Amino acid sequence: MSLAPDAPTIPTIPSKLPFTIELTQLDFPGAPAVQSFSWGQSCGKWLIVGGLDSGIHSFAGIHPMQNENRRLMVIDPKKKKVWSASVNDLPPTLADPLHACNAQTARDGEILYIMGGYGFDVVSQKTITFDSISTIHTEGLIQAIIEKRPITPYIAHVHDPRAKVCGGELVRLGKWFHLVFGQTFDGPYVPNDADIGKLFHWKYTEQVARFKMHGAFMWEYPAPIRNPSEHRPFHRRDFTAAPFITAKGRAGIGVYGGVFIPGRFAVFRHPIYIDDRAGVQVDTSYSQFMSQYTCASLPMYMTSNHTMYTALFGGMSMYQYSPRTQVLTNAGITHVPTITVLGRDRKGATAEYICKASYPHAMGADAAFIRSPHAPWNKSGVLEMDKLTRKTIVGHIFGGLLAKRAKGGGWNTEASNMIFEVHVSMKPSKTRTPTLTSGR
Fold it and tell me: Is residue 412 a contact partner of residue 403, using CB atoms and an 8 Å limit?
């Protein structure tokens, strides 16, 4: 397999999108600040599990538990109310995986599955990647938290070494779950390769595992799909994965961005498409410019033009865009406010759109898109665009990292408590057409 060169090319930016995305920030100052969390929802309320209540997850110089969200929180975005219960009331073996960050999460009706994740293990007194599968009855736990009743009956937990992953994604397609890429990381988080084997141990999974769930247990677990070439395109963590409609109309998974290319401090730019029938395709025909780090995403499909659209909301990006100069600059890896849309037609051609709407700040890494149950979603979780008859609230974006410029350069980050309504209307919108800075 040959990979496209890293030399930049001008991104294909059509002049218009056939729809418009808008953000409206909710006035909810009492919302909790959290990032890298797991979530479920029921009856208009959100369940927030784990994550961190501070900025970038460096534990250097402080006890790791100081950063962890050890509350199970219920948020009612309409009534602007918050309830919570402490995981410290649970036995440590049950509680510890529930305050992990960067766990893999999927939902199946009222059941919330949480696999792995990175956090402090009270039993061993170490920071580890958990080998756990937690299943939560979302509606029951939400009501128990609100009514201040015992929460243990609504949580089940098992150990499984196959679930020992953090920074990957768990995506459900029909009866099958897909544990996509990620890594195991044991030890304190110190971003210095010289400490590998001394302070911490890590290993990328470089695979896609496919299985069904029976209660809290994996079953029907065929051999995982592993790296298709010596270029190791599966060597990814902290990417965005979202449901996808293939050119043949089948449900699949799109994987966008991720870090790090082996031996380099660089992001992956070739999207990957996972189709249970056709296998895995690394799309070397396109190199993604924006939002290569985990961020909120909105998958949409338009039957009338047979095109799949995936909106990526800010986060961290290899390129940054200036609305004032309309210039796209290679910034390494930086925080951005930009909202982009990847469009892929039935022939497999990809275009990247820069939307006029954006966040008010550089933000969005490790935020969550929580979809509205009232919008027209298909069974895989893709928005059916042709069924939109008016401007519609299709979901909310919550939490994540908020970045502010530090004196002398760089960023200071903190967990965000901002909530945004995401509106979509079938009104065509002009997109921004950038130019690339010379030699970048």
Answer: yes
